[in-house]
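Objective 1.3, modelling of assemblies. Example input:
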Amino acid sequence: MSAATLASRPPVDVPVAATVSGRIAEAPGIFSLRLGLDDPQQRRAYRFAPGQFNMLSLYGVGEVAISIVSDPEQPDEIDHTIRAVGRVTRGLEQLRTGDRLGVRGPFGRGWPLERIIGRDVLVVTGGLGCAPVVSVINYILMRRTQFGRLVIVQGVKHAQDLIWRERYAYWRTLPRTEVWLAADVGAPLWPGHVGRVTELFDRIAITPDMAVLLCGPEIMMITAIRQLLGRGIAAGAISLSMERNMQCGHGLCGHCQIGPHFLCREGPVFDYPEIAEWLGRKGF
Amino acid sequence: MKSTAKKRPAAASKRRAQAPVAALFLPRAGLGTLLEALRARGFEVIGPSVHDGAVVYRPIESADALPTGWHAEQAPGRYTLQRDASPRQFAWANGPQALKPLFFAPRESLWRTTRDANGRLAFEAVAPRARPVAVIGARGCDLAALRLQDAHFLKGDDIDAHYAARRASTFIVAVDCSHPADTCFCVSTGDGPTADAGFDIALAELDDGFIARAGSERGGELLATLQLKPAATAQVRAAATQADHARAQQTRTLPSRDLREALFARLDHPQWDDVASRCLACGNCVAVCPTCFCSREGEDAELAGDQSTHVREWDSCFTSLHGYIHGMQTRPDVRARYRQWLTHKLGGWHEQYGRSGCVGCGRCIAWCPVGIDLTAEVAALMKPEPKPEAKPE
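Predicted structure (tokens):
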């Protein structure tokens, strides 16, 4: 295999070395890492699509699948927002600027950008669910004239869970861009709705021609889909990002299966009709 | 030679009837010559031999190591070997070990990470370990399983280099199964008891030797070097009768149709609770299954702190970590795990790889410590659900 062929294959089989070039503490237990691949050639060649994920490799500990939140137009700076909940993510939380880790990816199928271009886009997310869609939100905002209205609806359990407050506040100031927030449990000075994120649909101008991007707990997505279908949105216009245990990224290790689907290859983003049978099915 | 190509009796499968191959007679003493010829071609010979009370595939030095006269008695939760004076070397039904470990290694190093004094990391792929291997004694069910594993590990862009390297360097000598166990049901899955495809050479064992047929060009070339005589009509007929007998012996069955719809329509069937009350979630069924493909990945870090190896090991959907995701379990109980295993094996596989993931080898029945029989579980699931109020008098 020539050197050119080798360089053209993304680092999906074996990780490449990366250095933390920035770190942001987003909220208690939630942090963002900005990564740069160490090898200049790898850095230049690396490309990803919004909605794809990387396997981040912590030396001596292991790997974890994390979606990419940064702009695909700047693939030399790869941002990941992570909640410290497990063995690897708690270790990643300890990393600081200048620390090293491994990156393997990108993996999976991202958001259907071709299909949503030129349309009004409704983004509904719950919990930290926003992370897989931030990349596509940025993508739309960078190409604002190519899209219609952008409606961002974000729900959290507790008001204090909301990360990226400044980002939402900024997005709200942009033309033809709406931001709606909901918290199951409110707090003093909470600027949004108190209750389910789907309760906001009564107050938003939802039109049947909208393209919908969903991410978050499956029960939230099911409720949202039911309501959106009732408002005349076609099932095929709804895309959603799913989550399961990911280890190999190649559809081999078997952990990411939902029914017959290998999430890491066929997803994590699905058109709703592709995954409808499995969404919210307990035990799968 | 052409005149010796015998048509199989009607009971044989269509695939073989379409491609009649020259049947040769390999005297029993000639088997050693065949093994020698393979060795001379650079293959390490792996064959069945008795270890720890079971027939397993191990490197063998000569035909003497083969399990002459051994028979396997199997039942739910039971596997015992018995020996008699039979000269036969392949008169046993499969032991716990399929061909799977020869290709999909139970434990495999994928890459190595080195960390220098400044914390800089370097990642290096571990090259596939493959050597030319000749496997003797593969059964029809295991060849069918191998085709399924090929479909999984050699798909599209995501070819597994380790599996591919071993697969490419293997020569397969199949032996038709003449002594199925009580736990076998390969007839109902369409995968046995004879070897249909996927071998270089296939043998049908008779008391005084073997009927040999080539399944590949190199298999044919190798047989040609042995200068064998054509098999006599009576020998071919004896092998066919023996195969028919092996078919007739099987009592267990699995519905041959695609069970996907039927299983997924019964996800709340009380039988899942019933089987969960017996299942130990030990994962034995997964370990002995020739098609189960799950693996987990992890790090093996050196104590010195400068090197770590990324390894993958066989995993099982019965473990608590299989469905783990950020502090949550997608399959928190045994009921969900057994249901995942069975519905994937008999349902999901159809959509993934165009057929059921079960080849009827019966290993999961024999090696289940509590004797859970998937054919019985499926039969119970397919019965109409009992009415909740129905109680015995």
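The mean pLDDT of chain A is 92.
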